[in-house]
Amino acid sequence: MRKLIFTTAAVLIAGATFATTSAQAANPFFCHAYAQQAVWSESENLADSCGFTGARWSFDYAGHYAWCLSVSKAMANSERLARKWSLISC
Q1: Is 9 inside any structural domain?
Q2: Residue 8 forms part of a structural domain
Q3: Element (H, E) at 2
Q4: Which of 19, 45, 46, 68 would disulfide-bridge 31, Cβ 3.0–4.6 Å?
Q5: Residue 87 near residue 48, CB atoms below 8 Å
C-alpha cells in the first residue's frame, strides 16, 4: 500500500510539472513572429546606428526562435518590449 501511495504521488507530481511547463511555453507560431521581429529590430539597430550589442541584437533567426521556444510567452514578450523600448530611446 505504501509503495502504491508513493508511486501515485510521483505520477501526480510529474504530471503537474509537465502540465505547468507545457502551459507556459511559447508556441511555434508565436515564436516564429517573435524571431522575425527580433531580426527586424537588429536591422533597425544598425540602420539607426544605435550600437546595441549582445544576444538580443543579432540576425540569428534560429537562435531567437529556439530561445523563444524554451521560455514562457510572458518572458518572450518581456524581451520583445525591452528591444522595442531600446529602439525608441535610441
Answers
A1: no
A2: no
A3: helix 2-24
A4: 68
A5: yes
- Give CA–CA dist 6/49, Å, rounded: 60
Side chain identity at 13, as an amino acid letter?
I
DSSP 48: T
Report if residue 71 sits inside a domain: yes
> Could you tell me which of 64, 71, 63 has the C-alpha nearest to residue 21?
71
pLDDT digits 0-9 by tens, 13-67: 444 434 444 457 889 999 999 999 999 999 999 999 999 999 999 999 999 999 9
| Phi and psi angles of residue 72, each rounded to the nearest 5 degrees, phi first | -75, 160
Exposure string over 9-42, b if 16+ CB within 10 A, otherwise e: eeeeeeeeeeeeeeeebbeeeebeebbeebbebb
pTM: 0.72
